[in-house]
Amino acid sequence: MKLRFIWPGKTKDEHLRALIAEYLKRLQRFVRCDVVETRQFSGGSSVDKESARMLDALPAAGVTVLLDVDGREWSSHELAAQVQRWENDAVKEIAIVIGGENGVSSDLAARADKRWRLSRLTLTHEMARVVTVEQLYRAYAINRGLPYQK
Q1: Domains in the chain, ordered, with CATH?
Q2: Res 143 pLDDT > 90
Q3: Res. 106: pLDDT tops 70
Q4: Cβ-proximal residues to 33 (8 Å cutoff; 6+ apart), any chain
Q5: CB–CB of 20/11 below 8 Å?
Q6: Which distant-in-sequence residues (6+ apart) come within 8 Å of 24 by Cβ?
Q7: pLDDT score at 148
Q8: 37: burial class by Cβ within 10 Å (0-12, 13-18, 19+)?
Q9: What span, in angstroms and rounded, lies between the C-alpha atoms of 141 and 148?
Q10: How far from 123 is each of 39, 60, 96, 137, CA to CA, in Å?
Q11: What is the pTM of this model?
Q12: Per DSSP, what are the bridge partners of residue 145?
């Protein structure tokens, strides 16, 4: 299986960028990972332009998971079980999409197979990147019985 993380723009905060890199390094012990940073736009039509770039980055087959405030919250163990189901179903690729500061277009939202809400708290988009990668690493640690998850 492969995880593809898709988000607009580079992570500007060097500390958060370092955390993302650290968790990606850990995660890659279990699964192939790819990060696609699409072009970030500003202005009135930014959502449509950003979403079009993210749509282009989606794999042709696989599962698309959109981080969405109206999505389903998973506990770490529920996420681990979901990852296990994807592996058992031989899903080739999971695309994790984190939209920009103004969200995503309805076209991109319609492509989502799952909608994942990280928290009821409001997180910056850069912080959401860190939490997403860390939680997926934690899910693999749970599934492998590693002590990290405790």
Answers
A1: 2-149 (3.40.1280.10)
A2: yes
A3: yes
A4: 2, 3, 4, 5, 24, 27
A5: yes
A6: 33, 35, 133
A7: 81
A8: middle
A9: 6
A10: 21, 30, 17, 19
A11: 0.94
A12: none
